[in-house]
């Protein structure tokens, strides 16, 4: 349940990895989870990208946990020296790491398949398994039914996800299947396409924003592709409207339409708004 009745459930996302901050790897997990949570009625209030440093991870997780209903971390769960998410989450809540016996056994069965039979290979695999089986004391372990060795680990209101996008998406879908991430409220959205620059509609847009404070209104310019089309009209600006109150969305859109010259509107845009629940 949301901590503020009548408001959407809130979420914070913590993306962990030096490779993201250095630009070596492009993050796709934050975008995916923001879309998933938004479609379920959440309001994502923060996305923070932090380096592989225990103290920084801990501070970010602690802030998000205190401010949001749920927190989702991604990345930093591998066997190498820079995989420090479990340590960071444990530090955030002032608890030690403990080795989970089932996790250790599952990792042994999985990692052992591709392990070199040399003494060095076996030793490295054993070290990796023991490191990866460490979880914050008191955390909850949820095991996938398909034999996948990686459980969904959660600590209080923090869900700890892997960084590999395909596995991340699979883990989220598996966890969300029981409805735990569904919100009681749903967003209603609408859009308005205009052949205009932002400066052309600034007064009307500002008035609409002031008149409808419960509607989040966004303005997104796009390139003029008029030369690529035979049409005299070209979408250069998209205005979006979003609220938990569907009626307010419709009224806000129409208010802006009524205040603009007809030549700026897409031919059918002056008609009733097409709204959708998102």
From TrEMBL:
Organism expressing this protein natively: Alexandrium catenella (Red tide dinoflagellate)
Official protein name in the record: MoaB/Mog domain-containing protein
SUPFAM superfamilies in UniProt: Molybdenum cofactor biosynthesis proteins (SSF53218)
Pfam families: FLAD1_M (PF24102), MoCF_biosynth (PF00994)
InterPro entries, sorted: CinA (IPR050101), FLAD1_M (IPR056596), MoaB/Mog-like_dom_sf (IPR036425), MoaB/Mog_dom (IPR001453)
Domain MoaB/Mog, first and last residues per copy: 12-183
Superkingdom of the source species: Eukaryota
SMART domains found in the cross-reference section: MoCF_biosynth (SM00852)
